[in-house]
Amino acid sequence: MPCGIRESAKKEEMPMRPHTLLVALSILSLITAAAFGQTLGAVLTGAGEVPPTTSPGFGNATVTFDSTRQNITVTITVTNLGSPIIAAHIHEAPAGQPGNVVIGFTPLSSFVNGKLTGTFPIASDVAQRMLQNPSNFYVNVHTDQFPNGAVRGQLAYVNGGPITYVAELRPQNEVPPATSTAFGSAFVTLDLINNTIAWEVNSKGVVSPTLSHIHRGPAGVAGPVIINFATGPSQIVNGHTSGSATIAAQQTSNLQASDLLNLANPGTAIGYYVNLHSTAFPGGEIRGALVPANEYDLAVAGRTTGVGTVFVTDARVFNPSYDTPAAALLEYFQAGSTANAVATKSMAISIPPRGTAILDDVAGPNGLDVSGTAGAIRVSSATVLAVTSRIYSDQRSSGKGTFGQFVPAQARANALRRGVMPQLANQVNLGGGFRTNIGFFNPNTAAVTVRLELRDDAGALVGTSNLTLQALSQQQNSIATYFPGVDLNNALNLTLSFDASAPIDAYASVIDNVSTDPIFVPAQQDAGVAASQ
Length: 533
What we know:
Blueprint: H1 6-12, H2 18-34, E1 39-45, E2 58-65, E3 71-79, E4 85-92, E5 100-104, E6 115-121, H3 124-132, E7 137-143, E8 151-154, E9 156-159, E10 163-169, E11 183-191, E12 196-204, E13 209-216, E14 225-230, E15 240-246, H4 247-250, H5 257-263, E16 272-278, E17 286-289, E18 291-292, E19 294-306, E20 309-318, E21 326-334, E22 345-351, E23 356-359, E24 373-381, E25 386-394, E26 402-408, E27 410-411, E28 416-427, E29 434-441, E30 448-455, E31 461-469, E32 474-478, E33 490-512, E34 518-522, E35 524-525
Antiparallel strand pairs: 1-2, 1-9, 2-3, 3-6, 4-5, 4-7, 7-8, 10-11, 10-18, 11-12, 12-15, 13-14, 13-16, 16-17, 19-20, 19-24, 19-27, 20-23, 20-25, 21-22, 21-24, 25-26, 28-33, 28-35, 29-32, 29-33, 30-31, 30-33, 33-34
Helix pairs in contact: 2-5
């Protein structure tokens, strides 16, 4: 029965009964044990040990599960340890704490020229805990000099973790079609290993929104509510609702075991849709099928005030379709050192066929309305898009025009574990030369460990550093901030490289000290490895 009848809709929103919840949780265990191989990564440094070691060595690790979750294929590469390796393991403990060994790699396998590769059995309970919380496990390489561990790194998802879906919400998708001109977009992150969900739904033109959910039902069918996003008008402010919770807290009695199995794989997640209801259309005003997300990340954006100027971001979003409009969701993640579960602000846009959304001053009052801040923007859609931006000093009010740099979006699939940024320089004498800022955006839903390496034009090591990027966080600082104690007062022809436990976006902004002319240097793939590897 269509949920346009209010009494029926209310019934569908009832929390799941306990016995049904138990069935759902058991199915989640099956998902953990079955579906697809996942890959975890780690960056190994002496600073990660407890207590930190003085080892100059470093390395990385990749751990890939097979489809049965009974075996893992492991590759560990290390260099410059300065002492023979005596053991390597995976331990169970969070960062900053020592933990027990759960998987031993040596003597079953050995390092050859600083590299260990092998396939090892893993206990089912360890596999489940590791996939539920990779950051609670770490790879440790022990040496004669540091028998308790020379270099260590916490694990993080490289791929196969949480699944992201989008929905393009249109009135013509309703059953029957709604006579509305509204539209919207939704971004949904499902972690079916930890039984959690995060959602962002935004719309334009829905006058009095009342409810929002995920329904089960193919196109042309009005199906039952299975997961709640908003169960009352107060939870939808200005056409927008967002949040994160356990699936158990949001699911209804209509949720079936098969729904979770289907949603665990984008290939089988067919026949599910997001619906936004309103007073005028209680059965739903705009609706869209859940499909795999196309994601594009602008690693830096915002609207901030400088000395005698305002820095502004203009963005463009192009729809390549010749015959179909596209809806997109823009989510803004304000810069900071804390993790984000949902965006600071978001907005929905609609783009005509072969059209371009003109988003001048996208962070300003007529856009995302986050003036006075900087951050990153995630653009998502059911449609493949082209996304660009420009950040500039806006001095048009004084007749001096604009001055800035082009910032292309990075497709989520193109984020990098290993990247490099050449053509950097840093000189504190503002009478000449250049200065450099470095920025990062972590598009993952968990923290990522990053090792930085700065070299001169002869390849000599200038400095190293380690940092942790929290989930969905953005940051930008001067290059000297990342290398305390290193003299960068007059440093020319620098190249910065990074090694991350999971793919990230990174960039440099190099500014002429005299003219303030900036250039944007996006990270490129770093295919190199240390000689001993």
